[in-house]
Amino acid sequence: xxxxxxxxxxxxxxxxxxxxxxxxxxxxxxxxxxxxxxxxxxxxxxxxxxxxxxxxxxxxxxxxxxxxxxxxxxxxxxxxxxxxxxxxxxxxxxxxxxxxxxxxxxxxxxxxxxxxxxxxxxxxxxxxxxxxxxxxxxxxxxxxxxxxxxxxxxxxxxxxxxxxxxxxxxxxxxxxxxxxxxxxxxxxxxxxxxxxxxxxxxxxxxxxxxxxxxxxxxxxxxxxxxxxxxxxxxxxxxxxxxxxxxxxxxxxxxxxxxxxxxxxxxxxxxxxxxxxxxxxxxxxxxxxxxxxxxxxxxxxxxxxxxxxxxxxxxxxxxxxxxxxxxxxxxxxxxxxxxxxxxxxxxxxxxxxxxxxxxxxxxxxxxxxxxxxxxxxxxx
Length: 379
Ligand code: NAD
Ligand code: TYD
Known about the structure:
The longest helix has 24 residues, at about 100-125. The chain is of the alpha/beta class. Helix 1 packs across helix 7 (about 230-245) and helix 4 (about 100-125) packs parallel to helix 5 (about 160-180). The protein is built from eleven helices and 13 strands. The structure holds nicotinamide-adenine-dinucleotide and thymidine-5'-diphosphate. Thymidine-5'-diphosphate binds next to helix 6 and strand 8.
């Protein structure tokens, strides 16, 4: 069914993927409004949207998706016909240390949005056509063995972390609102994203930033866990396709065709950062502690640490349904995607240094407080 989104509410639009999506959507010259609703938690950063702040189509509203009356008022005021729902607590390690926020935002918050959308779109028939797009994760399918076939949309749910369990719960609520009330929903379950504006608590940006600062690179366990890395720009293109060409009630898996071990990712980043700094000695003034400026290599910073509890061994995505039905295919390979990401972090030093003062130092401390992530002998 072809759908033309007009006025969008983008929840979590100041986070990593949400802010990339706002840029993507506005750059592709759509008419209509883009209203961002974001609570600006530690992961949200209004600076991620600085480039679009003068665009007359764009409006930022600070608010909580759990506040159903406020969401309802926004939907009515801006005649929203499309919700793209990114807002979530998104970091597995934090969900292990404190699951409550994950249940509140990911489960209760998603339900609050669904209720507000149903009230306007179904009960009051407030817009001629509508779409609720829910952004979810491959982590709901659990962990694969080395020879298992990649996840499809019919793989049974088997979430292993409080994060993935909360996302699984939200996926089920979205499904139920389609089946029970006829809400026009679509869901995408994607693999691990990377790219610009990625908060440096996740593997790829944390590794880049730590190499630049000369800090250790914590690799959980043996580092042979596998993720299917998806460049965030490919993911944004997939979401735009799902909005316009997706069928109500359908789920689409979105992958990056880039199954890679964590240790390979970290080693590749070491190589890329060493080369970039080596080729640009002027960076020495900014990053004097980086190994390459001290006669060493970044790879020497790798430290195997105690594993994450319940750590999923392998994720892999079969995206043939999205390819067939939406015309989706990832455009970036992992090596060139990582190289452009390294360049972005070198160009956007103010962006990530601003975050370090705010939360990063506390997070690193918390991560090393003895629950997991403690340095251990390499296997
Ligand atoms: P993020 O943590 O970078 O951003 C989340 C955003 O949501 C932040 O801006 C935060 O301020 C906002 N937010 C949190 N709680 C809120 C609340 N109660 N009300 C309003 N806003 C709130 O997350 P991300 O990596 O951009 O992920 C976006 C979505 O994609 C999430 O739903 C996540 O589960 C999903 N996802 C992410 C990945 C990934 O690799 N990052 C992979 C698969 C799926
Ligand atoms: P992460 O970026 O936290 O994403 P997710 O847990 O959603 O997959 O982690 C990606 C992989 O990298 C995961 O297998 C855990 C591992 N990892 C490390 O080895 N060291 C780290 O410091 C971090 C943050 C993650």
